[in-house]
């Protein structure tokens, strides 16, 4: 199975309001709730691609119960979340019907105790034993040490499990130093990591910092990959309009599934770029438009060069 | 015991953010959760005044479980909420730390089925048997007929239980026609009911429409009462600055407690006005500053005239 880790799981709530005005009172016309956090989105896409996926991370409180109830209804996804005393955070996306724009309110997440963090690390090492690959995704909840991902990367490597890291800021900087097999930063995360706003230079620099391979997601410009086997750029044929939330998570799912299926890099990148573009057409993160994905897959342009042996 | 009815209970969530900007992403720095809905706030104030209170209405889902857990920790409040399949609504107050202003997002509430509405009516009639007074508070959730309060008013009168109605719009209009003992509209609700923005005229008009007594809450100007026994105005000594949410619910608690203690109208009004003002000093609805309440109680000016016998 593929293992995805979401230390800061969420209950993603979407509200529709006629028009959001600060300091006014609003009647919410529509409420939707779903399990959230990058690793859960990645798991949903992997399961839709036919992979067996196990999700771990933390969950707690009334919000955590809702997340688990909803996860239990997803075929192909096994819940191995570790309980904590604090409550799983909510994220609230307020969609303004007048403009279509979204205002986001993100709770910080539960404070994880040292004992809970230790319990997670044990559970994680047990799960690695049957994992073909692992993705470490998203922000750290309060209480989890900032070097957490570095430790989880090292444990995966010690277990011989390929590890992808998708986070940001100091957690990414420290995690990269532990030499993950792959990172998937977006343009901002890559610039923050390397200090360079020039993607070609920055992906190379991120490799020097410890990442074996770097696939940067550059929005509508597609993906830019720097790997030991070569460098490539994967560009979808058209700019799609829709909801970009979760496009990066779909790219992670594409890269991971390509890795465990041992696809050549150009095929992995084409799949990741097509999934990412097709998820822009889906209303929520963790889903993609299957028709668009299949149609786009053959039309993603992958250009690049193989490294001389 | 005193019975309070909250058909559309809520989980009131307060978020603090640095500054709310539409279409931006916000990190919530502080999250608080508490049971909400007007009747639950009234119950908390009544319990703090030493009365035995039973709360009923609807509750459901994960949010309803949190409401019930928190209610069970309140001394003096008995939970007689009726379960529904839908989920208790959330209300989200986003406090902008830069300005102190609040932006409110209110979910609509669960859709109540006809069978659930029937179950509630039976439970309500059973509870009336041991009630000394009943307050019907707040908005109606989807599925409950707009004439609901009229039926609940008639049932209370048939049981010989004094009934206070605190709602708005068409639910208030229909409820008033069923001749409740007391209504407590604010200025806007009173104007919507009567078409008059002149409070003296409007309170008299609301009596003609069916309310035996009318106590209008006029914000910092205090309370205006039109009753069969006379007319009064109760004015707090100073304008207090703070959070006006829940001030009307505290006034309802003051009026109800004065009713069951058979206080003369001027004393009931002084209590209601002092509680209302003292709740402005408390950070959340359903609470009041006890020191301020006791100090204000003797300083509320009650002026008016008794109706000639």
TrEMBL record, chains A, B:
<dbReference type="InterPro" id="IPR029056">
    <property type="entry name" value="Ribokinase-like"/>
</dbReference>
<dbReference type="InterPro" id="IPR011611">
    <property type="entry name" value="PfkB_dom"/>
</dbReference>
<dbReference type="InterPro" id="IPR017583">
    <property type="entry name" value="Tagatose/fructose_Pkinase"/>
</dbReference>
<keyword id="KW-0808">Transferase</keyword>
<dbReference type="GO" id="GO:0044281">
    <property type="term" value="P:small molecule metabolic process"/>
</dbReference>
<protein>
    <submittedName>
        <fullName>Sugar kinase</fullName>
    </submittedName>
</protein>
<dbReference type="GO" id="GO:0008443">
    <property type="term" value="F:phosphofructokinase activity"/>
</dbReference>
<dbReference type="Pfam" id="PF00294">
    <property type="entry name" value="PfkB"/>
</dbReference>
<keyword id="KW-0547">Nucleotide-binding</keyword>
<dbReference type="GO" id="GO:0005524">
    <property type="term" value="F:ATP binding"/>
</dbReference>
<comment type="similarity">
    <text>Belongs to the carbohydrate kinase PfkB family.</text>
</comment>
<keyword id="KW-0418">Kinase</keyword>
<dbReference type="GO" id="GO:0016052">
    <property type="term" value="P:carbohydrate catabolic process"/>
</dbReference>
<dbReference type="InterPro" id="IPR002173">
    <property type="entry name" value="Carboh/pur_kinase_PfkB_CS"/>
</dbReference>
<feature type="domain" description="Carbohydrate kinase PfkB">
    <location>
        <begin position="14"/>
        <end position="283"/>
    </location>
</feature>
<dbReference type="GO" id="GO:0005829">
    <property type="term" value="C:cytosol"/>
</dbReference>
<keyword id="KW-0067">ATP-binding</keyword>
């Amino acid at each position: 199975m593929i293992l995805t880790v979401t230390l800061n799981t969420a209950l993603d709530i979407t509200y529709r309001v006629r028009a959001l005005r600060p300091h006014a009172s609003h009647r919410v016309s529509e409420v939707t709730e779903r399990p959230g956090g990058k690793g859960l989105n990645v798991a949903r896409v992997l399961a839709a691609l036919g992979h067996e996926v196990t999700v771990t991370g933390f969950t707690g409180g009334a919000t955590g119960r809702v997340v688990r109830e909803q996860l239990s209804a997803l075929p192909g996804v096994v819940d191995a979340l570790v309980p904590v005393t604090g409550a799983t955070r909510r994220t609230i996306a307020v969609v303004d019907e007048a403009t279509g724009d979204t205002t986001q309110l993100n709770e910080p997440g539960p404070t994880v105790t040292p004992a809970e963090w230790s319990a997670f690390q044990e559970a994680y090492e047990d799960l690695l034993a049957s994992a073909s690959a692992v993705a470490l995704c998203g922000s750290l909840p309060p209480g989890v040490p900032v070097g957490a991902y570095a430790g989880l990367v090292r444990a995966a490597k010690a277990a011989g499990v390929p590890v992808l890291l998708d986070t940001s800021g100091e957690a990414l900087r420290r995690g990269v130093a532990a030499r993950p097999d792959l990172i998937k930063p977006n343009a901002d995360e890559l610039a923050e990591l390397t200090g360079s706003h020039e993607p070609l230079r920055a992906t190379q620099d991120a490799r020097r910092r410890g990442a074996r391979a770097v696939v940067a997601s550059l929005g509508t410009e597609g993906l830019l990959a720097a790997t030991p086997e070569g460098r490539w750029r994967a560009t979808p044929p058209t700019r799609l309009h829709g909801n970009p939330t979760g496009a990066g998570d779909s790219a992670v799912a594409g890269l991971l599934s390509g890795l465990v299926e041992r696809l050549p890099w150009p095929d992995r990148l084409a799949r990741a770029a097509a999934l990412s573009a097709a998820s822009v057409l889906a209303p929520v993160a963790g889903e993609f438009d299957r028709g668009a994905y299949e149609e786009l897959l053959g039309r993603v342009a992958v250009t690049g060069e193989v490294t001389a042996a």
